[in-house]
Q: What sequence folds into this?
């Protein structure tokens, strides 16, 4: 009996997963470390520092913590320069009308993202206007697959986790949603594909699944 839908950000509400890839790739190229899209898929949903460990996975060099902090800062500065030109027109087709429809039907909507850049992205794209609560990398200490960020989002909404569905493109996100006791919706064609209780390819399919708040979902 779902009353709220909680969304991941990067790779679900907006295609910033591609910008994360470009920013990590630029760092990897500068360091002379091979880095490809398959490795980038493993960075989905996990924290910036954990992602760096994946980026450096094929490096023969052992870096100090201070060097690693400088690398994440370099990547983030490059990533944020890409975010600076984001506008509402960068939100993938179908996302805003679907969010508006789900809200009109009475579902509460929230964000649960590992990203510390979520406030900037929500503000630049106008996505923030559709959300009743936001939980992001600035308000949690443990990253997905830990359920913390989804539980914080549900708490901010004042809705029990068992009455929430969570939509994520990352395997870590689907696992986090399940660990939170939520209905896990795997989204997109990357790592979450096939891992959820429900799996969707197109964002607009959410409107076919979630028709009336508090009533069984149509799987
Ligand atoms: C997640 C992304 O949403 O946020 C990860 O899927 C990323 O790839 C993580 O590492 C942290 O993002 P940021 O913007 O704080 O570096
Ligand atoms: Mg994601």
A:
């Amino acid at each position: 009996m779902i009353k709220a839908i909680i969304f991941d950000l990067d790779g679900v509400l907006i295609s910033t997963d591609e910008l994360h890839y470009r920013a990590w790739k630029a760092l990897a190229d500068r360091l002379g470390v091979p880095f490809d899209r398959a490795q980038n898929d493993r960075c989905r949903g996990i924290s910036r520092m954990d992602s760096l460990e994946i980026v450096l996975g094929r490096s023969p060099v052992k870096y100090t913590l201070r060097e690693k902090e400088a690398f994440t800062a370099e990547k983030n500065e490059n990533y944020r320069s890409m975010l600076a030109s984001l506008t509402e027109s960068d939100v993938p087709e179908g996302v805003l009308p679907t969010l508006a429809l789900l809200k009109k039907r009475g579902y509460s909507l929230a964000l649960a993202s590992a990203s510390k850049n979520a406030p900037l992205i929500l503000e630049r794209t106008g996505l923030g206007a559709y959300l009743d609560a936001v939980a992001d990398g600035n308000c949690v200490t443990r990253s997905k697959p830990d359920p913390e960020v989804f539980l914080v989002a549900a708490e901010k909404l004042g809705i029990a986790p068992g009455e929430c569905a969570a939509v994520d493109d990352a395997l870590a996100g689907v696992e986090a949603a399940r660990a939170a006791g939520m209905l896990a919706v795997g989204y997109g064609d990357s790592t979450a594909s096939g891992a959820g209780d429900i799996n969707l390819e197109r964002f607009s399919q959410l409107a076919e699944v979630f028709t009336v708040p508090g009533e069984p979902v149509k799987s």
